[in-house]
Amino acid sequence: MVGACSSAPPPPPPLAQVTVPVATGKAINPTTPIVVDAVGGKLTTVTVTNAQGKHVAGGLDGPATHWTTSEDLGYGGTYTVNATAVNADKKPTAKSFTVTTIDPATTAYANVIPSPDVVDGVGIGVGQPLVFQFTQPVKNKAAVQKLLTVTTTPAQPGSWYWIDDQNVHYRGPNYWQAGTKIHMEAKIYGVDLGDGVYGAEDTSVDYTVHDSWVAKADGSTELLTVFHNGQQVKQMPMSLGEPNNPSHNGPHVISEKAAQTVMDSCTYGVCQGDPGYYRETVYNDLRISNDGEFVHSAPWSVGQQGSANVSHGCVNLSPADSQWMFDHFGLGDVVEVTNSGGPPLPVWDTYGDWELSWKQWQEGSAI
Fold it and tell me: Taking phi first (over 0 means left), then psi (-120 to 50 degrees means alpha), and beta for anything else, what does residue 250 get?
């Protein structure tokens, strides 16, 4: 009888390998995902925790060979990765890794203007520029601007303009359409703004543009004519800046609203004892520039309103007319000044944005 042949059993499959490509010892950007890979097997458990023991969210792919974090990490963090994979024989391989993130010396926020809580429930006017105000100077303007987005419904063109290193404004060739829905974002977390400054967090905000309110202040007639959604609804006598203190020409945008304000000429260098000094509580105040121009109640100049320009640059109205303006106008609404004898409102003076042509405005983009 001939004996049967026998063969050796097949060798066991090799153990699975677990790797974390970013665990090189070099600090990573906190927006870089931590990916855990399994070769020759499947991942069964993965945990990523920070130094305080808080778990970082993540998930497996379909074949269970890759696990990826699904949320950003923090700056200056140390993360422990514990992962287990099994091979075809269900034998486990357990590994631990350490991942660190960069720790910038300075971070900066992109604050939005106007603040959403200020305009909540009332919306913004058709002339309101959209503003990101950075808390630190931005050197890498082009790189940062690519991460700033504005979406309008209905769609309208627009462009960014860098007023300075910390303020970037957005507007279109024309005022916003009434009823426009606006969403703006700054996706700057983890982004190098320049000179070692990194974005502190992403920012987003939503606005609604309310009805169109535009007032036209004509210094040659001393009349303020008001248009609501393009239709004239009111005309009132006014007084602009006197020849020695002319109001700025051009579109102005309301940036603040206060029932009363103490106006002090010393804020622009004319102090007590100087000719022309004044300090007075003024009512129904709509700020239209940062250098002291307001639409406000001026009972002392009612006799000149409609016939002479006698203010220090403000739009003087009677108490009744100023109350009407205060009741109907708000942030982002427009006061267009013409024939005042003054220079154009500087683009940097709060909202001198509309003094520039569309071509000039586009030239202020960093891209």
Answer: left
Asked if 174 contacts 144 with a C-beta cutoff of 8 angstroms, the reply is: no
Helices and strands in the chain: count of H runs, count of E runs: 4, 26
Angstrom distance (rounded) from CA 255 to CA 247: 17
Least confident of 41-50, 58-67, 200-209, 260-269: 260-269
Q: Does pLDDT of 191 surpass 70?
A: yes
Measured CA to CA in angstroms, residue 250 lies from 23, 235, 347, 354, 356 at distances of: 58, 19, 11, 8, 10
Alpha helix locations (H) across the chain?
116-119, 141-145, 319-328, 358-362
Provide φ and ψ at 301, rounded to 5°.
Answer: -115, 15
Q: How far apart are CA 330 and CA 28, in angstroms?
A: 46
List the one residue out of 106, 109, 46, 110 whose CA is nearest residue 75: 106
pTM to 2 decimals?
0.89
d(CA 69, CA 32): 9
φ/ψ of residue 225, rounded to 5: -110, 130
Please tell me the predicted confidence (pLDDT) of residue 173.
Answer: 98
Q: How far apart are CA 298 and CA 318, in angstroms?
A: 6
Q: Which residues are catalytic?
A: 296, 314
230 and 212 Cβ atoms separated by less than 8 Å: yes
Q: Domains of the chain by range and CATH?
A: 17-100 (2.60.40.3780), 106-210 (2.60.40.3710), 213-351 (2.40.440.10)
Distance of CA 276 to the CA centre of its chain: 39
